[in-house]
Amino acid sequence: MISIWMSCLVTFSSLRVYTVANTRPVLDTLERIAIFGTDASTDLSDYHSVVVHLLNGTEPSEVDVRQFRERPPTLQYRVSLGNETFAISLRKNTNMISSRCIIRHVNGSGHSTVSPCVEHDVTCYYTGTTSDHNDSWVAASVCEGLKGLLSFGNTSLFIYPMKRTSDQTSTSTLPNHVIYRYQGDKHVCKTEDDVTEILHPTSQAQGRHQINGMKTRYIEAGIVVDPPMARFHNENILQYLFTGFNIASQLFADRSIGTLMKLLLSEIIVFNSPDGFDVSDTVDAEKTKNSFCEWQSKHHTLNKTDVTILLTRNDIEYGANDNGKSTNGLAFLSGACKIRKKCAVVEDTGPVFGLTLAHEIGHLQTIPYYYYYFYYYYYYYYYYYYYYYYYYYYYYYYYYYYYYNMYYYYYYYYYYYYYYYYYYYYYYYYFYYYYYYNYYYFLYYYYYYYYYYYYYYYYYY
């Protein structure tokens, strides 16, 4: 029996998934936390098992990952859902990490160790499309399975590898991944919209150039991980961060934004200990954001980034002191131009935090609602706005029509007034002419008499 499930074939809003044996696998606690970001059964999305095969090359082993072995520039995957399949084409994302990116681990007593990002494996991250859809995009890590986001239209699917059993091989037909539709049931974000002017931040990144007549804009981001999140992910924290940032990077690279943009990771600070983390550790999103913004503005390296994001495991709320609502993030609208407002707080809700990350950075760059994630709602908002505009147009037209008629009648009366005035002017003209004529005539006669008088006088003289 065929069940309708939102996603992946033909349109992302109408994926057909065939009911097969064990289509909803049993996941242990660690798998649930890794995939969904939580172990709470009420927060788990509807998920299904799928078969993912790498079509070219071989899957990187754990040894390959540890040794940072070079991976091919392109990869192709096939995803099988029941008796349906679709292909994914990926290309290595070489525009995600800044050349001067650093990672800073802060341990007890505020002691920190610093290393370049390139000393860690940053070659696992790819972006691409599916061959079945024109409006699709994919952002995923290919190390230890396919792990990332697939998007078609208004739907986002997250795919994650399951623990491999002894029966599974690279050519096995047994399900080896979990796929689920991401549904943001919480408020994605709030904005502190206290900026009255539209600002256009200029990145501090170097190497700007022109592509197809359009200027490429660079956004350099600094990421700060709070102690609860660092403890939660432990040694997997960097791979986890890169996976989420790869999603955000791909969203900003989409040309439907209307300009060429590249989101670059320039610094990561991981607080493994509360020592040195002088940021308010609370569920109040606004208080945390304000505290973090003040802290990062004084940091000797973070104050040089275009935007700075705090990632937290706290279940943050907006308006926590007044029946607050749960939210995934909070940012200043247009804050990227101001050192104390170029910051945001994002809750770690699982690997899909990359969507919220992109959303908040969009707000910081003067984007009221990020084009992809809220496109559907923005469309309806725009639709309703359009209808309001439509009625306003008719109202304006109606008003204009009456105004036009009023003006016409006014012009009409003005015309008659002018005409009347013209007639007055006309009579005045004749009067003046008549008066002038008589005056001239009188002058003539006066001259005449004067002439004769002069003549007479002359004769007498």
From TrEMBL:
One of its GO terms (biological process) is proteolysis. InterPro entries: MetalloPept_cat_dom_sf, Peptidase_M12B, Peptidase_M12B_N. The chain crosses the membrane at residues 369-388, 400-419, 439-458. It holds the Pfam family Pep_M12B_propep. PANTHER family: ADAM A DISINTEGRIN AND METALLOPROTEASE DOMAIN, PEPTIDASE M12B DOMAIN-CONTAINING PROTEIN. This is Peptidase M12B domain-containing protein. It comes from Dreissena polymorpha (Zebra mussel). Keywords: Disulfide bond, Membrane, Signal, Transmembrane, Transmembrane helix. The keyword rRNA processing does not apply. Residues 217-369 form the Peptidase M12B domain. The keyword Signal applies. The active site is at 360. Residues 1-21 form the signal peptide.
